[in-house]
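Task card 7
Instruction: Convert sequence to structure tokens.
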Amino acid sequence: MLLGAQLRRLRESQGVSRETAGWHIRASESKISRMELGRVGFKERDVTDLLTLYGVTDSRERTALLGLARQANTPGWWHRYGDILPSWFQSYLGLEAAAKMIRSYEVQFVPGLLQTRDYARAVVLLGHGRAPADEVERRVELRMERQELLHRPQPPNLWAVIDEAVLRRPIGGPAVMREQINALIEATKLPNVRLQVVPFDAGGHAAAGGAFTILRFADQDLPDIIYIEQLTSAIYLDKREDVDHYAAAMERLCVEADPPACTQDLLHQILRDLD
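Output:
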């Protein structure tokens, strides 16, 4: 996506049409569009030819952009889980790993980035109860490895809003939930994590349609992405009107939810209720 956005900017600055760019690399106009949206892989030869067409002669700039092309074609850490991951979720993992800000709303489960191992296992079993034990454990391990991005140098900011029902629903049983609530209390102490809860007494709210995630990236040329997961697929939205609609819903949710400063008190209250 980052390389595609930079190629689009270079093309437009030179007044080159997508059709002309496609002809230059022996491809179609639609392929140039897909390249600029980051939806296809990159051949270094094509990138080299496009940079020449766009008048990029500085060796350092060319080297940096060709380096991006090589990175774009390098499989992510999740590639080794490809046998259990649908392609639509592999795309999400790549976007999540590249995001600067992750804002999510959850109505049923604790966000995957904040789940404990036992809670994650209970969630996996809900959807894959007939899977072999080793496959279940691989799915759990994938989720645990995914969480490492919150602890890497320069981690993304996670701002999660969850419905109170998430905390009251005994996924895995009381002991698993007790451990999960304690883990959430610890997570709220991280400088890059903000957690809010929409209490039952808030009534209806702006995101009654269901869970969603907004991904924002450091490069301003990249649009925000809305991710909506379904049972056997996912929807990715990046049109401005869609993004604005979901961003407004998220802002209203954050106002309707209890302030982040109140989250720990509520979590401790739920722990007491579990005793």
